[in-house]
């Protein structure tokens, strides 16, 4: 069973590394080893690499590496788009090469050959829509309409001008330094799409995540049914129980069945594990963004609210601490006997009463929030009417 345990360990390590790299900055992983691994993968390892290059090859090679980094990370480029096309094409090729010979099978009909191709084609179509659609670019001609659509809350958004575009910044917008444009209802810049995710294409992005999760789930289940069909067609359980005398129970049969599958269908099992891991990541990513959409919040606003809440909490704690100190000094002069150690120990700290309330004026209810994603303001007739009024 050494090979089986090696594959299990390899899968777990791969899952931890992938989750740490993609999701290490999520608030749920704050202070955990996932966040530390993410920091090492994204900053620490690269810093050590730059030091190694500078020590061995000199400053010119370091400048070359930094130039490549600037192109890959700070400028629009199709590298991750190409990687996506390669991943989905190669994965589908290996699935077709290793599994289609068993379709139709005991549990799957021949139509799944065509369903799988259609599913991948729809996924690529959603990828193209998200990558090449306008995320909601703000310019001089439509800035007044976006200002009318998204009022300032004077908390995390206030009236100001974009120093780069030289136009007023509507609430919920942000100037993307990579794309060099202001984007309405800015969520984040997605390297996989080589595009910003904003007011107009959030719906395509959400559909992309959900559809690819369903593709991975479908692929995992389909390959599992192919393997189950092979077990049934080759009568593996009967052979193990009748000819090898293994007791017909799950605990006794499972290790032998797994060993037989790994020896005969290791490619299919690796594909199934890969799809399952990617599917879980996509499910988490989709769930996170779905939660944001349901509360009418963006990723950019999440960080803004976090900074605002931390600042307000520190400010209130400072006021409460000052007031508590003032009262304690006054109490010491008025009280004849000091508090006992037990009473002082169990006395409630005034800092526990500090509460900071998040008031998101853009959260107008579940139905409205979903409608705003599916039918953005800029696609509605009222948006064009605001242009006529402002002109």
Describe the protein's architecture and organization.
This protein is mostly helical and 391 residues long. Helix content is 66%, strand content 4%. The protein is built from 14 helices and five strands. The strands form two sheets. The protein has a three-stranded antiparallel sheet, with no helix packed on it. Strands 4-5 form a two-stranded antiparallel sheet. Strand 4 (188-190) and strand 5 (195-197) form a beta hairpin. Helix 4 runs antiparallel to helix 5 (112-132). The N and C termini lie far apart (75 Å). The mean pLDDT is 86.
Keywords:
mainly alpha, three-stranded antiparallel beta sheet, 14 helices, 5 strands, 4% strand, acyltransferase, membrane, protein-cysteine S-palmitoyltransferase activity
Helix content: 55-70%
Number of strands: 5
Order of helices and strands: HHHHHEHEEEEHHHHHHHH
Straight-line N-to-C gap: 75 Å
Strand order of the largest sheet: 1-3-2
- Uncertain segments are none
Overall morphology: globular
Mean pLDDT: 86
Percent strand equals under 5%
Describe the largest sheet.
Answer: 3 strands, antiparallel
Q: Looking at the chains present, what oligomeric state does this protein adopt?
A: single chain
Radius of gyration over all CA atoms, rounded = 28 Å
| Total number of helices | 14
Structural class: mainly alpha
